[in-house]
Each structure stands twice: as structure tokens, then as C-alpha cells.
Design brief:
15 helices; alpha+beta; five-stranded mixed beta sheet; about 10% strand; three-stranded antiparallel beta sheet
Length: about 400
């Protein structure tokens, strides 16, 4: 490999996991000459610390998502099967074929018809909380998106707890160096999740319903591809909403802030300020110049979304949480061909859930120290104690 600038940032270090943003700022400044791009030997890939470089990585079609089965492949087949057939892990034309049926189903109005139901579910969950003190993650932010995405897909609500457990087990595999117990849990979750979805697909083919599984079961997608799409929608829809909500709410409460009158604007700032997804990896299919560095064919490069969203070249006062920030050109949902298909659902869900929480508890405050999930790639809180104030 040609001589390139290097970074020694430890993405697993407790101080980086706890607050990566000062470390990102240091690396962005250190590698300004190469546009915020540097080689990271521990992970064997380039890291990007600037908004321009992260955007370039996501937009350049020569930098693709190229799935490689995790090893040992035979043991990890349940996990590999769900990812091998996902749109997120493939490039056009396969990506286009996998994405089109899902996009078509979303376009039928499934998302907007759920808005009244989101309000109803939010009100019901809040009615069960105690203003004297409750965990806003476990009792509100986590169950709400699971119930919503389950209803959208057509998964019975009785499986909500299983869906939450399966999702969390699977996404922990995305961390930099998962422990063996994490791997084992992901394999079990993938197998159980796969079994449930296959049963539901068979049921919908026999008895169609007004849901996304019915829509997908009637397309040209194979059973493996339908299952992968359903699992992706549940995992992405659940994890993004929960973590954006928790991260953003904690940021506001620690600063004594409340959402702006324009709640959707505050949601965009929640997405920017403490990104739920921190790292998204690509592989060069040919030599590509990113910033001032040549990424050679076969080399990997990671878009650090949280670093991009705090870049002072794009955001005024990037370290401040501005509830009515505008413009807000964050990259939390990605850009280009892999732009998050569930972004409209996540935005609607977050706006409704934040508005309902603040309307119910206008003086809401932290009632203890939030408990972090202690993960880097998917950043969030396990528990956030709050009280009515």
C-alpha cells in the first residue's frame, strides 16, 4: 500500500465509546491535509472524519457494500443468510431488485396511515408511566417503534418482546470486535427470527392482509429475500428510532432544553447531534480518490457519520444542540443509493413520540445517570431514568 496518513484512534476504548466527538475533532484537524481521511491499521481500513469525505464515500458508486459471510460460515449461516440477501449489503443491480418492492410498498401509504396509530400507541404507553419516575427507554422509546414496525409489517404484537430481543442481539454483531457470547446470541436470534417470518409469509400467501409482509410475499422476491427484507426493516426501524430518541432526549435534558415549536426541526437536530449509527463500511471496486487519499481496489473505507455531523466546515457551532437548527445537512440517514428507506417512518415516529412525551411531562428531567449500551457502531442508552420534575 502507498504511504498514507494513519490514525491510531481506538474505537473500542471506553473514553471513545463514551464520547467519540472530541476524538473525532482531533483526528479531523490532524488529517485536514487529506480531507479528513486516514488509514486505521487496527481495523484494516480507512476512516473518514469530515463531512465532505463521509459524503463522498456514501455517494461514490465505486465504493460498494460487498457482503462476505462471517466465519465460521457454517455456524454463522443463520446470521449470514439474513444479511447476504439484504438490500443494504448489496449493490445495483441486485440492490435495485431487492429495494424496489419494499420502496413500492412504502409508497402505497403504509407510513402515513400509521400516524394516528403512533399517537394512540404513544398515549397508551405514557398512560402506564409514573411521573414520579420511570425509564423512558424501556417503558416508552423502545416498545413504541417495535409496536409500530410490527403493525406495519403485519407481525402480531404478542411477539413485540421477542422482536426487541432478537433485534438487539443481531445488531450487537455490528460492533468492532464482538465477544463470542454476542456471536452465539446473534445466531440464536437470527434463527428464531427467520423461523417466525417464514411462518408469517406462508400465512399471508394463504390469507393476504393489509400489511407489508403480504405486499412483499406477492413480489418476485424469494423467501430468503423476503425474510431478509422484513428483518432489516424491523432492526433498522427499531434501533434507529430508539437510539435517536434516547441520545437526543438525554442531550436536551442535560442542557435544560425543550423541543422547538417546530418539533420536526428538533428531530433533525437529534439525528445530527448524537448519531445512532456511527460507522458504515464500504469496499473499493476500483481505485478511488477520497479527500487526498487513494483507496485501492479491495481496500475498505468507513464513513464515520457522527464525525461528519459535527464538522465545523458545515455546521455552525457544531458542539451545541440547537433545537431549531436550520439548515441541517446531517448525514444520519445516509445519502446516495443506500439512503435509508425508512427515513420517513423514523422522522414521523420521532416527531410524534417527542411531542407526546413533552405534552404529557412538560417539566421532564433526568432522575439519575443514563446507562449507556457501551457500544460504538450503534450508539445509544440501555436505560434513561426520568421524572416529571
Amino acid at each position: 500500500m502507498r504511504s498514507v496518513p494513519t490514525t491510531s484512534i481506538d474505537l473500542t476504548a471506553p473514553e471513545v465509546v463514551a464520547d467519540p466527538y472530541p476524538h473525532f475533532a482531533e483526528e479531523r484537524a490532524r488529517h485536514a491535509a487529506t480531507g479528513g481521511v486516514a488509514w486505521h491499521e487496527p481495523s484494516g481500513m480507512f476512516l473518514t472524519f469530515s463531512h465532505a469525505a463521509v459524503s463522498a464515500v456514501q455517494r461514490d458508486r465505486r465504493l460498494g457494500r460487498l457482503w462476505t459471510d462471517r466465519e465460521p460460515a457454517a455456524y454463522l449461516e443463520p446470521f449470514n443468510l439474513l444479511h447476504r440477501n439484504q438490500m443494504m449489503e448489496n449493490e445495483p443491480p441486485v440492490h435495485t431488485r431487492l429495494r424496489r418492492p419494499v420502496a413500492s410498498s412504502f409508497a402505497r401509504g403504509h407510513v402515513e396511515r400509521l400516524r394516528p396509530r403512533v399517537r394512540e400507541l404513544a398515549a397508551g404507553l405514557l398512560a402506564e408511566t409514573d411521573g414520579a419516575g420511570f425509564d423512558v427507554i424501556g417503558q416508552y422509546a423502545e416498545p413504541l417503534p417495535v409496536l409500530v414496525i410490527a403493525e406495519l409489517l403485519g407481525v402480531p404484537s404478542s411477539y413485540a418482546h421477542d422482536l426487541r430481543d432478537w433485534s438487539q442481539a443481531i445488531v450487537r454483531m455490528y460492533e468492532v470486535d464482538p465477544a463470542q457470547e454476542t456471536v452465539d446470541a446473534a445466531v440464536r436470534a437470527a434463527s428464531e427470527f427467520d423461523g417466525l417470518v417464514r411462518e408469517l409469509v406462508a400465512e399471508r400467501r394463504a390469507t393476504p392482509a393489509e400489511d407489508l409482509i403480504t405486499d412483499l410475499a406477492g413480489t418476485e422476491l424469494s423467501d430468503d429475500e423476503v425474510v431478509a427484507a422484513v428483518v432489516l426493516l424491523l432492526n433498522a426501524g427499531h434501533e434507529a428510532s430508539v437510539n435517536v430518541f434516547g441520545n437526543g432526549l438525554v442531550a436536551m435534558l442535560r442542557r435544560g432544553l425543550r423541543p422547538a415549536a417546530d418539533v420536526p426541526a428538533t428531530v433533525e437536530e437529534m439525528l445530527r447531534f448524537d448519531s445512532a449509527l456511527q460507522l458504515f463500511e464500504r469496499t473499493a471496486t476500483e481505485d478511488v480518490t477520497v479527500g487526498g487519499v487513494v483507496v485501492e481496489r479491495g481496500q475498505r473505507i468507513a464513513a464515520l457519520l457522527g464525525a461528519a455531523n459535527r464538522d465545523p466546515a458545515v455546521f455552525d457551532r457544531p458542539e451545541e444542540f440547537l433545537v431549531d437548527r436550520t439548515p441541517n445537512n446531517h448525514l444520519a440517514f445516509g445519502v446516495g443509493v443506500h439512503f435509508c428507506l425508512g427515513a420517513p417512518l423514523a422522522r414521523m415516529e420521532l416527531a410524534e413520540s417527542v411531542a407526546a412525551l413533552v405534552a404529557t411531562y412538560p417539566e421532564l428531567a433526568l432522575a439519575g445517570e443514563p446507562e449507556s449500551r457501551d457500544t460504538f457502531v450503534l450508539r445509544g442508552y440501555h436505560r434513561v431514568p426520568v421524572a416529571a420534575g
